[in-house]
Design brief:
By secondary structure, this protein is mostly helical. The protein has one domain. 90% of the residues lie in helices and 0% in strands. It starts with a helix and ends with a helix. 0% of the residues are buried.
């Protein structure tokens, strides 16, 4: 029970900090910034997926 509660509280705290930070920065960023953020995030996710895929074969 303590583990489940800890994971829930940690996830709720992370979500709150992340959404609060984004809401503070949203007014300062232009649409072009969001395009680059999406591209970089996509590349990071693709590389992480590739690393996991390669680790299964090595």
């Amino acid at each position: 029970m303590a583990l489940v509660l800890g994971v829930f509280c940690g996830s709720a705290l992370w979500w709150s900090l992340l959404s609060g930070g984004v809401s503070l920065l949203r007014g300062r960023l232009r649409p072009a910034h969001f395009v680059w953020i999406n591209r970089i995030s996509g590349m990071i996710l693709a590389l992480a997926g590739l690393a996991v895929l390669l680790s299964t074969f090595l």
